Amino acid sequence: MPTNFAAGLNQDTRSEMVELLNANLVDTISLTLAVKQAHWNLKGRGFIGVHELLDDVAARLRDGADLMAERAVILGGIARGTVEVTSKETRMSAYPVETTDIAEHIEALKERFLEVGESVRAAAQKAGDAGDEDTADLFTEVSRAIDKDAWFIGANAPDAA
User: pLDDT band at residue 36, thresholds of 50, 70 and 90?
Assistant: First the structure.
């Protein structure tokens, strides 16, 4: 592994955290691309509001991905976030690229936000159990943003009223 900039963590813990960060990095990149897929293709009642919301959501997801990637490097690892790695390693369900109906996009995104959010929360627990509270805190921060965006997106569902 390259140079470590995190004091107080042994090599095994750092390596484990880098793997955990990269696993969640690819899922977050995959979710970001799903959000952009919906942003570009959705049609229907409420279009402009959801279209604009999804740009903001994608930006927050990119911020979370950036935190994870940088933490992996701080721990002495390599951030693995290329489209090729993401495509091969993401655990997120494939996004339905032919969808245009806004309600279908909202449902598909909500499901994936819940999937990724659950994984990030599990990663926070695992990092805390390993004694890396900084990485646990990072995952908690990302989790809060994912939960909030799941709520923002889900509030646009036809049955949300």
Answer: very high
